[in-house]
Specification:
The structure holds two protein chains of two kinds.
Chain A (H helix, E strand, L loop, with lengths): L17 H18 L13 H7 L5 H24 L3 H27 L20 H6 L2 H22 L2 H4 L4 H7 L13 H30 L5 H29 L1 H4 L3 H5 L2 H11 L4 E4 L9 H4 L7 H6 L14 H5 L5 E4 L18
Chain B lengths: L3 E5 L3 H13 L4 E6 L11 H6 L14 H5 L1 E5 L2 E5 L4 E4 L4 E3 L2 E4 L3 E3 L12 E2 L4 H10 L5 E5 L3 H12 L3 E5 L12 H13 L3 E3 L6 E5 L2 E6 L2 E5 L1 E4 L3 E3 L18 E2 L12 E3 L4 E4 L5 E2 L4 H15 L12 E6 L2 E7 L16 E8 L2 E8 L2 E8 L5 H9 L4 H4 L23 E4 L2
Parallel strand pairs in B: 1-2, 1-7, 2-3, 7-19, 9-16, 10-11, 10-16, 11-12, 18-20
Antiparallel strand pairs in B: 4-5, 5-6, 8-17, 13-14, 14-15, 20-21, 22-23, 23-26, 24-25, 24-27, 25-26
Helix pairs in contact in B: 1-7
Classes of the chains: A mainly alpha, B alpha/beta.
């Protein structure tokens, strides 16, 4: 028997009460402790995590963070599967997320560190891992790894987003998404469903993508100019560290997770992630869609409520419109919670038999 | 001159009518009168609000700016009396509203359980928002509850109260759960599933009386008395048309439904239209009675709105389909599935065959007449009912349909598909 979502609004931690505020503060404080010490802007912030990491015989605080992250994901996955484990999609997806986190995002860097080699996180590519196309980064990597990051970032991941939807990354591989889908399950209903939030999201997420493109462009121009222009070099370095601190650390880390209990789990993914923005643009013209079974929606509101990206799924379902939205991370929860089985995630290249009779709509 | 359209009831039929009017007439004055919730909400979600899966706000159908955006006026209050001669509504607070065209979309109220005191605070219903608010206060963890009535509202209340930590006794008068839609085999799958959650499901269990014993209520049942803290009567609904008595607006003497023609206009009173649960509408089988269903209320609302602006319209009931959920078990049906429990009207058995396959909690039943597929009934797996409706319309043979079942799959991605297997049984009779 699976608990489902029946008790969501009866859990104090899920309803923006005092407990949620407290947890939000704890998460925010943790991320400040993680990111501020040694940062470009607040380097003297007290570093409490490195001594703890060393006490645990971990080489640095990032591996301690990886350990805590993995523990949170495993615990969250247990909670998540107790609620939604009756769905094979969610079981396979959740096991995959755990395997990627524990294998690629924790164990591999740990082994490399123990062997005295530089840590490599294969599951993060450009533009989420914004420096992966910086010439300086690529030069330090072995050729096969440099090739991996270039091809994955520019070819493989966009092609997969076209054929499978960006969910292949956002809900199956990505660590940010992985935490949201497991540890974040108690807060997925807190996303803002308003049209205002949607408009804000379109501006903000594409702005961040623009900033990544700008930063990457400057770094490449700087490297291409070699030792030439000192002003360009300074600008590139400034942009890089500003992006790293304000977007990479404060937005994706501190706000992204710190706001879970108050604004839902995908604040970063929705409003900030350049990877989500880029793959979303590909997805919009790709094969992935959510098919709506015609005239069966009872407008109950479960799909919209539990959409962590704040998509008002119900408006599409009520009006027999298939859903193609750039922001959809394809977590599949709308389809799973629908009590009338109205929604189905599909990637067929043709709208063949059984693909639903809904109209198509292109909505960014 | 601007026509004033007044709509009583802001649930799905009423709000769909208002939207239909606005689409046709940008200038019309449209007023929605309701004493329930300020914003149209999904009534079928009341169970989710009761258990805590949704907030009431989550169930609201449109943004809260609907009235402003669509220029609908809103009057909060319950209509106590309708006066067609002066075209006036009289509200419970003494206010009046005049109309040029009136839509009655007042929905249903719960039918009472015979033998219960209408004022008994321990006896609940679950149709309206007030029912939810009252039951929500009474639903204290650890209490015991008897849910009386083996229909859809019954199973929803049972699930929600079970999730709230109450001890649930689900009392069904009929030989098995939901006999108008499920046969004995399907119903046993559902009952076993519900029992697996820890609910006490009792069939052939008519309640012959309810009496107070201290704070508790004692139900007289065939297998002896049952003492519970509260009772939820889910024994059907009836049109909430009591306030029309004496108004001259004709209602059916037995059902209480507002008498309407195929255009949904009142057969007795000019410029009055009815839609949704409260209207005496034509069913697909030609009979006339209220049809308490979300989809038909939505469709009737759209037709009623057009009738109000003066269009020549006709409400046509399409082929039956429906879906439901019994705890975690989803149910989809399309076409004609004759009720088959003892005492129900069973069609002549000549020429009828039933194909049935069960795979754990997933079942599929296909009913045929002279080899032509007439109806589908499915538990557990998800199906696209529109494909089934097309096959029925195309008068496909069973042998043609079975190899093509996959075309009507609508399961979650990665779920194992339900395919026709040799283990299925084909029996005579519907």
């Amino acid at each position: 028997m699976h608990a489902g979502l029946l008790d969501t609004y009866r859990r104090p931690v899920s309803t923006r009460g005092g407990l949620a505020v407290l947890l939000s503060l704890v998460l925010t404080a943790f991320y400040l402790l993680l990111y501020l010490p040694g940062s470009a802007y607040v380097p003297s912030f007290p570093d409490l995590l490195t001594p703890i990491a060393h006490a645990l015989h971990l080489p640095d605080k990032w591996l301690l963070y990886g350990l805590l992250y993995s523990v949170a994901m495993v615990a969250g996955a247990v909670f998540m599967l107790r609620r939604h484990g009756n769905s094979r999609y969610h079981r396979i997806r959740t096991y995959t997320l755990l395997a990627v986190q524990i294998g690629l995002a924790f164990s591999l860097p740990l082994v490399l560190a123990v062997l005295g080699k530089p840590q490599v996180y294969l599951s993060y590519v450009w533009p989420l891992s914004y420096d992966k196309l910086f010439p300086g980064t690529l030069k330090q990597l072995p050729v096969y790894l440099a090739l991996y990051f270039v091809v994955a970032s520019l070819v493989v991941f966009p092609v997969l987003a076209f054929t499978k939807g960006k969910r292949f990354y956002c809900s199956w591989i990505c660590g940010c998404g992985g935490l949201a889908e497991t540890f974040g399950d108690p807060w997925r209903h807190l996303s803002d469903k308003s049209a205002r939030a949607w408009r804000f999201e379109q501006v903000s997420v594409h702005t961040v993508l623009g900033l990544v493109l700008l930063t990457t462009g400057l770094m490449i121009a700087d490297a291409a100019g070699a030792t030439g222009d000192g002003r360009l070099h300074g600008l590139a370095e400034h942009t890089r560290s500003a992006y790293g601190f304000f977007v990479g650390a404060l937005f994706s880390g501190v706000l992204g997770v710190g706001l879970y209990p108050l604004m839902g789990t995908r604040v970063w993914c929705r409003y900030g992630c350049p990877m989500a923005a880029l793959l979303g643009l590909v997805q919009k013209f790709g094969r992935f869609r959510i098919t709506v079974k015609k005239d069966m929606c009872i407008a109950c509101g479960n799909c919209s409520t539990y959409c962590e990206m704040g998509i008002d799924v119900r408006q599409y379902a009520m009006n027999n419109l298939d859903i193609k939205r750039a922001s959809c991370v394809g977590c599949g929860m709308c389809a799973h919670v629908c009590p009338r089985g109205v929604l189905r995630l599909e990637t067929r290249s043709d709208a063949g038999p059984g693909a639903g009779a809904g109209e198509w709509v292109l909505d960014l | 001159m601007t026509v004033h359209h007044v709509i009583v009831g802001n649930s799905i039929a009423g709000v769909e009518a208002a939207l239909a009017i606005r689409r046709r007439d940008a200038d019309a004055r449209i007023t929605l009168v309701s004493g329930e919730h300020a914003h149209p909400f999904a009534r079928v979600s009341l169970m989710y609000v009761l258990c805590g899966q949704l907030s009431l706000r989550d169930t609201e159908l449109h943004g809260r700016d609907l009235y402003e955006r669509m220029r609908f006026e809103r009057v909060h209050g319950w209509v106590r009396r309708v006066d067609p001669t002066t075209r006036t509504l009289h509200l419970d607070d003494g206010a009046t509203v005049g109309w040029d065209r009136l839509l009655l979309a007042v929905g249903s109220r719960a039918r009472r359980l015979p033998g219960t005191d209408p004022d008994d605070p321990a006896v609940h219903h679950f149709v309206r928002l007030e029912d939810l608010e009252r039951l929500d206060r009474a639903a204290v963890r650890g209490r015991s509850v008897a849910v009386v009535g083996g229909g859809l509202i019954g199973v929803e209340v049972a699930e929600a109260l079970h999730a709230r930590g109450l001890r649930v006794h689900f009392l069904i008068r009929e030989p098995w759960y939901f006999p108008v839609a499920l046969d004995g085999r399907e119903s046993e799958v559902v009952a076993a599933h519900i029992r697996g959650h820890g609910v006490d499901v009792r069939t052939r269990c008519a309640v012959s009386g309810v009496e107070p014993v201290g704070e508790k209520r004692r139900l007289r049942l065939p297998d002896g008395p049952l003492d519970v803290d509260l009772v939820v009567a889910a024994v059907g609904v009836e049109p909430a048309t009591g306030f029309l008595a004496g108004s001259g607006v004709a209602v059916h003497p037995q059902t209480g439904g507002v008498e309407v023609g195929d255009d949904l206009r009142s057969s007795s009173t000019p410029d009055v239209v009815a839609a949704g649960d409260c209207a005496q509408v034509a069913w697909a089988d030609g009979s006339r009675r209220p049809e308490q269903l979300w989809y038909t209320a939505r469709d009737q609302g759209r037709v009623a709105g057009l009738a109000m602006v003066g269009d020549e319209v006709r409400y046509r009931r399409g082929t039956w389909y429906n879906s439901a959920k019994f705890f975690d078990l989803e149910y989809t049906t399309a076409g004609w599935i004759p009720a088959s429990h003892p005492g129900a009207q069973v069609p002549p058995s000549e020429g009828w065959t039933t194909w049935y396959q069960a795979d754990g909690v997933r079942t599929l039943r296909v009913v045929c007449k002279d080899g032509v597929v007439k109806g589908f009934n499915a538990l557990g797996a998800r199906w696209d009912h529109t494909v089934w409706l097309r096959w029925i319309q195309e008068r496909r043979a069973l042998a043609w349909v079975l190899p093509r079942l996959a075309e009507s799959h609508f399961h979650e991605e990665l779920d194992r598909p339900f395919l026709a297997a040799p283990t299925a049984t084909l029996t005579e009779g519907a």
